[in-house]
Every structure is written in structure tokens, then in C-alpha cells.
Amino acid sequence: MIQDLLTEQRNEITACTIYKRLSETLKDPANAQVLLKMSQEEYRHYQVLKKMTQKDVSPHRFQVFFFTLLTRVLGLPFGMKMLERSEDKAVETYRKLSGQYPQLNALVKDEASHEEQLIGMIDEEKLDYMGLVVLGLNDALVELTGALAGFTFAFQNTRLIAVTALIMGISASFSMSASE
């Protein structure tokens, strides 16, 4: 049980560091404030666990780097979804250990509220937009592939097929950019 507590203690200080770093990089002040508040709560969780284990642990530096980079490259919604998973694991562990350590029940409530706050930060409009982009690319890919298959059977001339495919690709690009 002590090993589980130490693992969660390290996860709490790691999450504290991740949320603090992400709050410093966000442009939206409301989301930055939410992450800063969550960072402070994670630090408080770390302090509760530190009293129980009587040990001091440091954050997992690679996870801090990985989540920060992941969020910068793939966007906040993706990073928040990954962080939400770690909150789920913490709740599960705290529930398992709450029989021996009743003070963990308060942490379970906090972690559940963190999960709700992370979900609230995910901008659904951006996700919908990305879904439309993927749908458009999928439609264009199917259309071009079907047309090329038809041209292959109709023309049976490699150069003519290549020129036709190039013309179709350019016209599809113009069409998509015009509709945007």
C-alpha cells in the first residue's frame, strides 16, 4: 500500500507541474486560471500523501516534458483527454485505498472534479472543425481513387491517366479551397 501511495504521490506532483506549465502557455486566461487552480489542488494532494508516506518525491520529468510537448503539438483538447485518463487512474487507486486511509475520500472528490474541469476545457467547436476536415479529406480520397480506377480501365494509357489525375487533383484543391 505504501508503494501505491508513493506512486500516487509522484503522480500528484507530476500533475501539479504539468498543469502549472500548461497554464503558463495558454492564451485563454479562463483556461489558464482553471489549470493553475488545479495545479494548486494537486500540490495540496501531494502534501496530504506526503504526510501519509513521510517521504518526499520529485515529479516525473519525462512525463512533464511529454505532456507539455504533446499539448503544444496536438493541441489542448488532445492533451486534456490524456490528462483526464490519469485523473481516472488516480480516482481508482484512491478508492481502493480509502478503506485503510479515510482521508483519501476527499482526494477522490477533488480528482472527480478535476476530470469535469478538464472535460469542460475541451473546445468542442475545434473538435467539430477537425472532424469536418477529416471527413472532407476522406471524401476527396475516395472520390479521387474511384475516378483513377475508372480512368485506368477507360484510357489504358499511363500518361493520359497521370495527366487526368493531375487535373482532377488540382481542380479538387481549388474546389475545396473555394468552399473554405
Polypeptide structure, described:
- The structure is a single chain.
- The protein is 87% helix and 0% strand.
- With 180 residues, it is mainly alpha-helical.
- The chain has two domains: 121 residues, Ferritin, core subunit, four-helix bundle (Ferritin); 53 residues.
- The longest helix has 32 residues.
- The relative contact order is 0.09.
Task: Give the helix/strand layout.
Layout: H1 2-25, H2 29-53, H3 61-74, H4 76-97, H5 104-121, H6 124-155, H7 158-179
Helix pairs in contact: 1-2, 1-3, 1-4, 2-5, 3-4, 4-5, 6-7
Structure summarized in a few sentences:
The chain is mainly α. The protein has helices at residues 2-25, 29-53, 61-74, 76-97, 104-121, 124-155, 158-179.
Instruction: Please report the distance between the alpha carbons of the first and last residues.
Output: 56 Å
**Number of helical elements:** 7
| CA radius of gyration | 25 Å
State the CATH architecture of the largest domain: Up-down Bundle
What spatial form do the alpha-carbon principal axes imply? elongated
Summarize the helix and strand pattern as letters.
HHHHHHH
What brief labels describe this structure?
180 residues; mainly alpha; 2 domains; elongated
